[in-house]
Specification:
Blueprint: E1 18-33, E2 40-53, H1 62-70, H2 81-91, E3 97-110, E4 117-130, E5 138-150, H3 152-157, E6 164-175, H4 183-191, E7 196-197, H5 204-215, H6 221-230
Antiparallel strand pairs: 1-2, 2-3, 3-4, 4-5, 5-6, 5-7
Helix pairs in contact: 1-2
Length: 231
């Protein structure tokens, strides 16, 4: 039986490396532990998978990306993301691999006065990069958190009231090897830097509380960014 030619592994004479080549926008189920309840949260992630292509290789093996991902089809946990990235690098014989997961995550929140319960939808990103050397592995967690900002200038120049608006704060944190933090922990740090938090459910006593909280805590966008950096 004749062997089928492997064109992708052929030698390329142009000597041009490609930083990232792969597949994007794959929808895939993942499972995350929830420290607040001790249970799990199931969600669907948008996955990007890339490897670096050396200058001498014509192409990469696209099917291998999905093969690696499908090996975790039963349940892919957040603490396995770096492992998947390492396997990608080895399976595709690449010098470096990069893996991204972006997904909705729901935070349980109680209204500040009445305690009315609701769930706040935030966007979370996991990014893993591996070049085969554990000391160089890179894991980054990013979140987008909705909040309220109230303008200090508007408050200063007005006899009553102040301009306020809903804002979105985005933060990315790179972890040292062996270190981690819960999504909820990073969420709490980020949310505390706004003029006031956003809640899914508010009754009238809660509305009064958050209105006055924002008024007592005016912040420019620049204030929020600096407070985030310090936090």
């Amino acid at each position: 039986m004749s062997t089928m030619p492997d064109v992708q592994s052929a030698h390329d004479l142009r000597n041009v490396p490609i930083d990232r080549v792969g597949v994007k926008h794959i929808r895939y189920p993942i499972t995350l532990k929830c420290p607040a309840t001790g249970g799990e949260q199931h969600t669907v992630a948008r996955v990007n998978m890339f490897v670096g292509l050396p200058h001498h290789q014509k192409g990469t093996h696209m099917s291998r990306f999905l093969e690696v991902l499908n090996e975790h089809h039963d349940r892919l946990r957040s603490d396995e993301v770096m492992d998947v990235c390492r396997v990608m690098k080895e399976r595709l014989e690449a010098e470096e691999a990069h893996l991204e997961f972006t997904f909705p995550y729901f935070i349980h929140k109680k209204a500040p006065v009445t305690g009315s319960e609701g769930m706040l939808d935030i966007e979370v990103t996991f990014e893993a990069t591996s070049n085969g050397k554990p000391e160089n592995d890179r894991f980054v967690m990013g979140i987008k958190v909705p909040a309220t900002s109230l303008c200090p200038c508007s408050k200063e120049i007005s006899m009553y009231g102040a301009h306020n608006q809903r804002c979105e704060m985005e933060v990315h944190v790179q972890f040292q090897p062996g270190k981690f933090m819960w999504i909820e922990e990073l969420f709490a740090l980020v949310e505390a830097c706004a003029s006031a938090p956003v809640y899914a459910v508010l009754k009238r006593p809660d509305e009064k509380f958050v209105t006055e909280e924002a008024f007592d805590n005016p912040k420019f966008v620049e204030d929020i960014v600096r407070d985030l950096a310090l936090a």
